[in-house]
From TrEMBL:
It comes from Salipiger mucosus DSM 16094. Its main location: membrane. The chain crosses the membrane at residues 18-36, 48-70, 91-113, 163-184. Belongs to the TRAP transporter small permease family. Residues 30-122 form the Tripartite ATP-independent periplasmic transporters DctQ component domain. This is TRAP transporter small permease protein. The keyword Endoplasmic reticulum does not apply. One of its GO terms (cellular component) is plasma membrane. The complex comprises the extracytoplasmic solute receptor protein and the two transmembrane proteins. It is found in: Cell inner membrane.
């Protein structure tokens, strides 16, 4: 395999391993929020923020840990025939079926970017140009200029009403990491078909 591809695979693996190892500790934050929710409901007045905070932490845990899960091969698979195949045959099938996953993740990424733009007050049909204009306004004019491009910030319809954009940004970042990891897995499968290991 070309050295650029090997370097790409190793860098993506290292980045997703680092982020995934940090993200797995979010389960303790989730436990803490849910524990506080139970204690508050039993001994004090129920808190409005606990349920949605638990949902937001779970989204971050799941989305940021997904690429690391793919890297480890611990994702769920339909293993009717796959488990008995040779590593080379698995790599051949994976090299083809990964395009379906990449297509799905591409659609999911576009939807996440569109939803994030909507949560920042953009109601048009070009979310990528909105973020380009937003970044340009921030670089040239600072936070005030960027703030002028944003409209009404979306909030949750609950009584607590937190802003939604932070969790949507995490979703965009997590899906992008998943796309990068799947591309690295594709290159790894091509190497296995050729009899090499990355």
């Amino acid at each position: 395999m070309p050295s650029a591809i090997v370097a790409y695979v190793r860098r993506i693996d290292a980045m997703n391993r680092f982020i995934g190892r940090i993200a797995m500790y979010l389960i303790f934050a989730l436990i803490g929020v849910l524990l506080w929710s139970s204690v508050a409901k039993t001994f004090f007045s129920p808190k409005l923020w606990t349920l949605e905070t638990a949902q937001f932490v779970m989204v971050a845990y799941y989305v940021l840990g997904g690429p690391y899960s793919i890297q480890l091969g611990s994702n769920v698979r339909m293993d009717l025939f796959y488990g008995e195949w040779s590593p080379r045959r698995k790599a051949m099938v994976d090299a083809v079926t990964i395009f379906f996953l990449l297509f799905y993740l591409g659609v999911l990424f576009y939807g996440a970017v569109s939803s994030t733009a909507y949560s920042l007050g953009y109601f048009g049909t070009e979310p990528f140009s909105f973020f380009g204009n937003l970044a340009w306004a921030f670089v040239t004019g600072g936070p005030d200029a960027a703030g002028e491009l944003m409209g009404y910030l979306e909030t949750s319809p609950s009584a607590w009403r937190p802003y939604i954009w932070p969790v949507k940004v995490i979703l965009c970042f997590g899906v992008l990491l998943m796309l990068l990891q799947c591309t690295a897995e594709f290159f790894r499968d091509i190497a296995r078909i050729r009899g090499e290991e990355i």
